[in-house]
Specification:
about 45% helix; eight-stranded parallel β-sheet; globular; alpha/beta; TIM Barrel; about 290 residues
Length: about 290
């Protein structure tokens, strides 16, 4: 049994980290610049981010590789540095995690539309996901997390690519942000049945519009596949502009209160997405460790 599966089999809920992108922007990442650049250019900032979440009580942290596929890195002129960037990201996370904290290799969407709606062939997407998963596995992540997916076909391509490259555990999370569906119209029930049927280890929902909507998506996924092992990593609400800054309204206390509601639905992993901070994670730890 892998370290990840062993921890997952324990009774208590595993607490994940919070946002990466919005935290790095607060630390000075310029708008439009790929966060993955900082794995090479500002490693101390990435290390500090991971350290803040570990100190807040997170059981697992995600590598700074959400946009680390060749198809995403090419947009930043970094397509030839996929392996180097992903390896650097995992090392930074591992340096902080030590032996106790799990490190998940983060894979996000390609940012392109699959044919016939777009110009991306499924084979090209699958190959890009496999390449990234191979680099993450080489860096010794504990599991692969495929997150913020809107297109079920792309999620399937990512799972297939990851399985080609590694035998590590796989988590898959969709973003339900458009009237209870993903941007591509996928219902939570449909996603749960399809993804769990692939034999992955964890399914769930992340990002999204609100805590309430993400909670409802998890409820529908749970009803569709009662035996599934599930995770949630919702945003701290939606951002609004204030004095030129993006402000998220959900406080740590509110996030902690919702963590208990997600726990009641039997999730095994809970953390935060956009707008969440180490303070949010600390409050979640207090809520879940105090009652579970």
């Amino acid at each position: 049994m892998t370290r990840f599966k062993e921890r997952l089999s324990q009774e208590r809920i595993l607490i994940a980290d919070g946002a990466t992108g919005t935290m790095l922007q607060a630390a000075g990442l310029p708008p439009g610049v790929s966060p993955e650049c900082w794995n090479l250019e500002r490693p101390e900032a990435i290390r500090a981010l991971h350290q803040a979440y570990v100190e807040a009580g997170a059981d697992l942290i995600l590598s700074n590789t959400f946009g680390g596929s060749r198809l995403r890195l090419e947009k930043a002129g970094l397509g030839g540095r996929v392996r180097k960037i992903n390896l650097a990201a995992v090392k930074l996370a591992r340096d902080v995690a030590g032996e106790k904290i799990l490190v998940l290799g983060d894979i996000g969407p390609t940012g392109r539309m699959l044919k016939p709606l777009g110009d991306l062939a499924i084979e090209e997407a699958r190959a890009a996901f496999a390449e990234q998963a191979a680099a993450l596995a080489e860096g010794r992540v504990d599991a692969i997390i495929i997150e913020t997916m809107s297109d079920l076909k792309e999620a399937l391509a990512a799972v297939e690519g990851a399985k080609q490259a590694t035998s590590l555990p796989i988590l898959v999370s969709m973003s339900f942000d458009t009237h209870g569906r993903t941007m591509m119209g996928v219902k939570p029930e449909e996603a749960a049945a399809k993804l769990w049927g692939l034999g992955v280890d964890v399914i769930g929902a992340n990002c999204g519009r609100s805590l309430t909507e993400t909670l409802e998506a998890i409820r529908k996924m749970r009803d569709a596949v009662p035996k599934a092992t599930m995770m949630a990593k919702p945003n701290a609400g939606l951002p609004h502009e204030k004095n030129g800054e993006s402000i998220y309204d959900v406080t740590p206390d509110v996030m902690a209160e919702y963590a208990l509601r997600f726990a009641d639905l039997g999730i095994k992993i809970f953390g935060g997405c956009c707008g969440s901070t180490p303070e949010h994670i600390r409050a979640i730890v207090g809520a879940l460790r105090g009652t579970h």
